Amino acid sequence: MKRFYKTATTIEKDGKWAVALDGRIIKTPARSDLTVSDDAIAAAIAEEWNAQGETVDIPAMHLTRLINVAIDRTPGERQAMIDEVGRYCETDLLCFLADDDQEDLRNRQIDLWRPIREWAGKTLGIVLLEAPGGVLHQPQPPASIYAARAHLSPMDDLRLTAFVFGMGLYGSALLMFAVERGHIEPLEAYESSILDEAWQMEKWGEDAEARARHDAQRTEVSVLTKVFSLKNAN
């Protein structure tokens, strides 16, 4: 749509921070005020709106979209979102290594992925087992699935929303836990998540479509950096 405002600013309202366009607070799709509890997050949203040109590209405003979901949908879907982490743990990317005939790729996966799995086991009590070569499903310890869900329960709506978004982007709950806890950077986690594809491109040549998709997803990863760099995001 055509840009209809001059400036986006942050204002304090009822103990929270809102983003206003020429003084009028932005509304979510469900017509709630777009508010957060951290002024840095509000400033980042305002920056997205101020960065728009003659037209407003809503799909490219990743933080605004994430906040909309956190306000409009997450409160009513928290348990379903928490349960989703259990399903991801059952099929976590980091548990499935390449076959022995792809030794180079397998060694790279071990070098990058095994330390994350070991960290999750020691730090969070989430012990996920590697699947033997060629096995499509490895049953995981129920205690680990319980522990994963338990870690999500105290999260506020924005962090939970960002966690589930990142988990889907990475294809891994463990990578997202490492990001949420500050163990690794969001972009580092993303590069680990596309290890297989990067190896294939090294071997067979770069795919223009895959490269464009990865570049777009790297941009989306910036949302995780903004959310999880703040201790008090809402």
Can you write the helix and strand succession as a string?
Answer: EEEEHHHHHHHHHH
Rough shape? globular
Radius of gyration: 20 Å
**Helix- and strand-based class?**
alpha+beta
Summarize the amount of helix as a percent range.
55-70%
Number of helices: 10
Instruction: Give the low-pLDDT segments.
Output: none
Number of β-strand runs: 4
Distance from N terminus to C terminus (CA atoms, Å) equals 28 Å
Overall pLDDT: 91
Strand content: 5-15%
The major pleated sheet works out as:
4 strands, antiparallel
Overview of the structural elements:
The protein is an alpha+beta fold and 234 residues long. Helix content is 57%, strand content 7%. The protein has helices at 39-50, 62-72, 74-90, 103-124, 142-152, 157-170, 173-180, 186-193, 195-204, 208-228; strands spanning 8-13, 16-21, 24-25, 35-36. Strands 1, 2, 3 and 4 form a 4-stranded antiparallel β-sheet that branches. The longest helix is centred in the middle third of the chain and has 22 residues, at 103-124.
Summarize, please.
This protein has 234 residues and is an alpha+beta fold. It has 10 helices and 4 strands.
Structural topology:
Elements: E1 8-13, E2 16-21, E3 24-25, E4 35-36, H1 39-50, H2 62-72, H3 74-90, H4 103-124, H5 142-152, H6 157-170, H7 173-180, H8 186-193, H9 195-204, H10 208-228
Antiparallel strand pairs: 1-2, 2-3, 2-4
Helix pairs in contact: 2-6, 3-5, 3-6, 4-7, 6-7, 6-10, 7-8
